[in-house]
Structure formats: C-alpha cells, structure tokens
Write a structure and sequence with these properties.
The complex is a heterodimer of chains A (414) and B (308). Chain A is an alpha/beta fold and 414 residues long. Chain A has 21 helices and 12 strands. In chain A, the strands form 3 sheets. In chain A, strands 1, 2, 3, 6, 7, 8, 9 and 12 form an 8-stranded mixed beta sheet that branches. A two-stranded antiparallel sheet of chain A has the order 4-5. Chain A starts with a helix and ends with a helix. Chain B has one domain: MetI-like (MetI-like fold, Orthogonal Bundle). Chain B contains 14 helices and 2 strands. In chain B, strand 1 and strand 2 form a beta hairpin. The longest helix of chain B has 32 residues. The N terminus of chain B is likely disordered. The chains are: A alpha/beta (414), B mainly alpha (308).
C-alpha cells in the first residue's frame, strides 16, 4: 500500500515538474502579421518544450482590446503591436522594461533605430522590432519612357515628381501621373509624412508633446500636391480611396508614381509579373529622402512572471537567428535585423534593398495619441490633407489642424 | 351577440375556481425577462452613469470628476453638430422610407398570386445585417470596379465614374438610398398588417356609397391604419436616431466630418479618443433625447381617434 502511495506521489511530482518545465506563453498579434508570427511560433514550438501561443486580433481592435485586457487584469503575456502604439502603452505603465535584454543582444546595433526610438519611454526600452516595413515610391518605367522621362533615374524631389506626373497624365487615355491614398490616416502617415522628414521638418516635436504643423516643408509639399491635383495628374480615386484599389490601379499600367511601401516589390513580382517598375525612397519637396518605419514591435506585458518572460525573450532570440530572418523576409518582405541583407535577400528581387537601406534613416511619429491624431478618419491629420490638398482654403486647413492637434495633445500628453 | 353572452360566464367560472390571482405565478413568468432586463439593461445603465462621472481613459488612472463631462458636452460643437445632422438624417430617411413603403404595401396587398412573391422580394434586404449591407454598398459604389459606376458608364449616362462620397449631399443621398433599399421592406410589412386589418365591409360600403379610389384611401384606409403608421414611424425614427453602421462603413464620417451621426460621435469619443467616461456621458444625453422623442410619439399612439 505504502509503495503504491509513494509511487503515486513520485508520479504526481514528476507530472508537476514536467508541467512546470513546459511554459505556455500567449502572444497577441495583429491579423496582418498573424500568418508570419504563427509560422515563427510553429518553428519555435517544434524545437522547444515551451510553447508560444499566437492569438490574432484585428488591427483596429488591438488597442481597445489590449487596453481593456490590461485594465481587467487579463492581459496576454506579450503582444506584437504596430510600433506607433508603443509610447501609449509604455506611458500607461502597461509594458515590461526590457532595456537590459535589448542592450545586451549581439545584434543590438542591427535593430531599426525608429523601432527602438518608439519603444523607448523615459530612457527605458519596452520592445524589440518584429516585422519592420518602410514606405517607398514605386514608378512605372514603361510610362516614364513613354512620357520621355529617364526610367533609370528616380525623381529626386517631390517637385520633380509633380513635373513628371503632369507629363505622364498628358499621355491621355485615362493615364494618371500620381496615386496616393488620401482617405486613410494610416496610409497618409506612411506615405505623406516622409516628405516632411526628408526636408528636415516634422509634424510633432521630438518628444511628441507639441504640434508643429505649420512648416515651410508642409506648405511646399501641399503646394506640389495641389499643383498635381489641379492639373488632373492625380488618380481621382486618391481622394476618397482607402487603399484597396491602389495596387491594382498601378498594376493596370495607368499610374506613373505610386506612394506605397516595401511589400510592393514582392507583391507586384508575384501577382503582376508584367508590370515594369522601379522603387525609390520618398523625396522631400526640394530633395532629400526619407521613409516611414512601420511594422510591428514585440512588447512584453507588465507583471509577467519571470519564467514566461524568459521564454518570450528566448523566442525573440529565436526569430532573430539568420535562418528565421530569411523566413520572415520571404513571408513579409523585410528582415527584422538590418545587418543580414546578404542572407535575407539572397534569393529575392534586388529592388527590395531600396527599402531595406532606407529603414535605418526612416522615422515614425512619436506620439501618445496615434489613433486620435493620425489614424482616425475623422481626426485632424486626415482632415488637414483632405482640406489643404482638395479643398480651397489651405491656410484655414493648416490653422484648424494646428489648433486641433494642440487641443488633443494638451489633453493626452502623459 | 353570442360572444357577449359567453363572456360573463367565463369570468364567473375563472373567479370561482381561483378567487385571488396568484402573485408568485405572475412573477415566475416575468422572472426570465426581468433577469435579462436587469442584467443587460439596468446594470449596464447604472455602470455607464457611474463611468460618465469619471475621467475614464482606456489606459491609465480614472478620476472622479462629478459632472465635468456633462459640462464639457455643453460646449462640444462636434456633438451638437452630429445631433443636428442625425435629426436631419432622421427626418429625410423616415420620409423616404414612408414614401416608398406605403405604395409598396398598397401594391402587395392585392389578392394576386404574384403578391406573395413580391412581398418576399421587397422584404429580402431586411434580413441582411446593417454592417454587411453597408459593406456591400461600399463595393457597389466603388468608382473603379463597382457595379454602379460600371452600369452608369455602360449605359452612357456619365463620362467618368460618379464619386458621391466626396461631397455632403450626394453622400447623404446614397446613404438614404441604401437605407431605403434595406429597411423599406420591414416598414412595408408593418403597414401591410394595418391594411389587412381594415374590414372589407367598410370599404365595400364606401364603394356602394360612391366613394372614389382616392377618397376611399384618404377617408377610410389612412385613418383605419393610423396605428400601424404610427408604429412604423416610431420604429423608423428610433432606429434612424441610432444610425451608425452606414456612416461608419460607407462615408466614414466624411467629407470633412460632415456625416458623423450621434452614435458615431460616441464611438469616436470612446474608441478613437479612448475617453470612456466622456463617451458614457454622451450616451446619456442621447438616451434623454431619444426618450423625449419616443414619448412624444407614444403619446400620439395612445390617443385613439375613436375616443377623441
């Protein structure tokens, strides 16, 4: 009898220790990055006893859901977030400080600077890059040739783009010189703000607490856009489009220059192999180049237990290995590390390197109220672009935007 | 005569078997719905009222501010503008629905074999959810590959695809068109029940007296279906005041924030600005406005023409 009891005790001890050894870590991921992260988690789970469990959340619902989960004490262990939300969650004390981990990585210097800047709040780092991307322009080299432009030389300034766009639109037959997505905040910050950054200006101060809407760079950029719009060189769907038709419009060969992102190269080569195109960084009104560093950052939730934190950070080390970086590049177009171009792009279209190289110079607005200022379709940024480019009152639109930005910032600054 | 004679005997037998109606039995029957009302309406209502007295961000600390949110509401131009817009939309869309649903009801009220088929056809869009219908119309309205643009261009009616969502009245127009398509069938059914409740002998008597089609409609049909007309009106006004999906999905509040309905502005305060307390306060103001409008309408409904 005693033997059986002992055996049972030993058995249960064994069971509990194996259970304790295998840790399940929950990770929330936005839907657009869901497939890649699930793939990485599958690779990780296949070779480790600990498990990463990925849950996909619709992109627009990530902030309200994660916020509600944190408030209700039911947060996941980690989240792969749009990097722009990092300051918001860090300032609200929702994330775990992982400065030590980030700084001690052998690949610390190969992380996208903008991702690290956005993950930093009050000198502590709260996230590591997961899936970066960068905004760029794509231009149709066939149309450039037809319009008598040099297809081997990318436009060096926005004013040059405007001149080229007008020439391409003059080809007629419903051909347009330029396409940008003007009715979506997330598209506009991605493709419009780099013009300002390329000219050394910004719409928010460095710390994200003050609005600096009215700059010469903004006025010059708007003037170039208005010039194109007045001349009928901008595709008419730009104004009310939400981005769904942008790639098709470009792929149909009727658009000269498309404001887009790094994923465009693999998308066009795989789905529309006949389109002849080249890509380039986004220029400023008079020159210079910049890009929006977009994509996802992995953050660890506040109050996670030490064991789970270890597993989650081990997962970061895992996906940062060259082998997994090649997988990420294959699936989403760009590696998380900026020092692996040779490995990552060995078997891919070399045009991908344009966005890869600009990523180290790319920026992202550092803000605590991204949704309200930028993303919201009814927010001041979308209304600024709609009013100043398609409306009649440029000065009024800029002033309204400056006032609305200031009002929101005064209320939301932590 | 026979029915009036039976009634007293029934009451007597019921009364003799069961002199006192059992209170607990009534309560037992009511209990399930009481639980639902309590759990899904009263409790959330009290919680929302409690939230509306706080500065309640999605993230970070909440703070009790008393009536601060309500004081801010008074000066919130965006909210008043959206309430005004919602009223405008309600008046226009209710009128449009009535103007379409009443003729439809009169048409399908005929004893024709095909009437059943048409009733089904007109009612069909009602079973689609508002969100799904809005998404469908979003695609229909797409200027590049939508059906409307394709049809209009194919018929040679327009040279370039129409872009109604770029200015206010066309945007409101297509929304009203979509809502009429989506909900007129439901109003038609309500009106149809009213039409079918009109006794045939009254109409016949009027016919014999020599009343024409129009005067029969005006003096007999309309007054006798008054209650179903009012019911349709109350339901349409209430649902229009709460309109959200169609503006959220199709116009997205644009152009220049001109089509933000009242519920949309509550959504923006709560889930774009993440001010849950302020959003709750807005919900309360909307609730008061809605209760006021509904009680005026219900007062009309209670007033029976036979009594006055």
């Amino acid at each position: 009898m005693l033997k059986i009891k002992l055996a049972l005790a030993a058995l249960s001890l064994l069971a509990s220790t194996t259970l304790a050894n295998a840790t399940d870590v929950t990770l929330w991921v936005r839907t657009s990055s869901g497939a890649v992260l699930q793939g990485l988690a599958d690779h990780y789970n296949a070779s480790h006893s600990d498990k990463i469990i990925v849950t996909q959340i619709t992109a627009e619902q990530m902030v309200p859901k994660l916020g509600a989960a944190i408030a209700g004490g039911a947060a996941p262990d980690g989240a792969v977030l749009d990097l722009i939300y990092l300051p918001t969650f860090a300032a609200a004390d929702g994330l775990e400080d992982i400065s030590e981990f980030v700084k001690s990585r052998p690949y610390a210097s190969a992380m996208s600077p903008s991702h690290i800047r956005l993950a930093t709040y009050e000198d502590k780092i709260y996230g590591v890059p997961a899936l970066p991307d960068a905004s760029i322009i794509a231009y149709n080299t066939d149309l450039f040739e037809k319009a008598g432009l040099d297809p081997n030389k990318a436009p060096a300034s926005l004013e040059e783009i405007a001149a080229d766009a007008k020439k391409i639109a003059a080809l007629g037959n419903e051909t347009y010189g330029f396409y940008f997505v003007a009715n979506s905040g997330s598209w506009l910050i991605y493709d419009f703000l780099p013009h300002l950054w390329a000219a050394g200006a910004d719409i928010l101060s460095e710390d994200g607490r003050t609005a600096t809407v009215d700059t010469p760079a903004l006025r010059e950029t708007i003037a170039a856009y208005r010039d194109m719009w007045k001349a009928g060189a901008i595709h008419p769907t730009s104004r009310s489009g939400n981005g769904n038709n942008a790639v098709e419009a470009f792929a149909s060969g009727k658009v000269g220059v498309l404001m887009t992102g790094s994923y465009i190269v693999n998308l066009l080569t795989s789905k529309y192999p006949d389109v002849k195109f080249a890509v380039a960084p986004i220029p400023g009104p008079k020159g210079g180049a910049s890009s929006f560093a977009g994509g996802d950052t992995l953050a660890v939730m506040k109050g996670i237990d030490a064991e789970k934190k270890k597993v989650l950070l081990d997962f970061v080390d895992f996906y940062m290995t060259p082998e997994q970086q090649v997988y990420i590049t294959k699936e989403s177009g760009m590696p998380s590390r900026t020092d692996l171009a040779g490995d990552a792009y060995a078997s891919f279209d070399k045009r991908n390197l344009v966005s890869y190289e600009i990523l180290s110079k790319a920026r992202t607005p550092y803000t605590f109220s991204s949704d309200e200022l930028f993303v919201s379709r009814t927010g001041p940024f979308v209304n600024l672009i709609q009013g100043a480019i398609f409306g009649e009152d440029v000065d009024g639109s800029i002033k309204t935007a400056q006032d609305a930005f200031t009002k929101v910032l005064e209320r939301t600054n932590p | 005569m026979a029915s009036t004679a039976q009634r007293p005997t029934q009451t007597v037998t019921a009364a003799s078997n069961d002199p006192e109606p059992k209170g607990w039995l009534g309560l037992a029957f009511m209990a399930p719905s009481l639980v639902f009302i309590l759990g899904l309406f009263v409790v959330p209502l009290v919680m929302a009222l409690w939230m509306s007295l706080h500065n309640w961000p999605l993230l970070g600390r909440r703070k009790f501010i008393g009536l601060g949110n309500y004081a801010e509401l008074l000066a919130d131009m965006q909210l008043w503008h959206s309430l005004g817009f919602t009223l405008l939309y309600t008046v226009l869309v209710t009128a449009a629905i009535m103007a379409v649903a009443l003729p439809l009801a009169l048409l399908v009220d005929r004893p024709l074999r095909l009437a059943g088929f048409f009733r089904t056809v007109y009612f069909m869009p009602v079973v689609i959810g508002f969100g799904a219908a809005s998404t469908l119309w979003m695609w229909l309205l797409n200027p590049d590959n939508g059906v409307f643009a394709h049809l209009l261009r194919g018929l040679g009616l327009v040279d370039s695809a129409p872009r109604p969502l770029e200015s206010f009245w066309p945007a409101l127009g297509v929304i009203i068109l979509m809502v009429v398509w989506k909900t007129a069938g439901f109003t038609m059914v309500i009106l149809l029940t009213g039409l079918q409740a009109i006794p045939a002998d009254v109409t016949e008597a009027a016919k014999i007296d020599g009343a024409g089609v129009f005067s029969r409609f005006r003096r007999i049909t309309l007054p006798l279906m008054r209650n179903s007309l009012l019911l349709a009106l109350v339901l349409n006004v209430t649902s229009s005041m709460l309109a959200f999906d169609q503006f959220f999905i199709i116009t997205q509040g644009g152009p220049s924030n001109s089509t933000i309905s009242a519920v949309f502005s509550i959504y923006l305060a709560s889930f774009s600005s993440y001010r849950l307390g302020y959003g709750s306060a807005m919900s309360f103001v909307l609730l008061v406005v809605l209760v006021a409008i509904s009680s005026i309408q219900l007062a009309f409904l209670r007033q029976r023409p036979e009594e006055s």
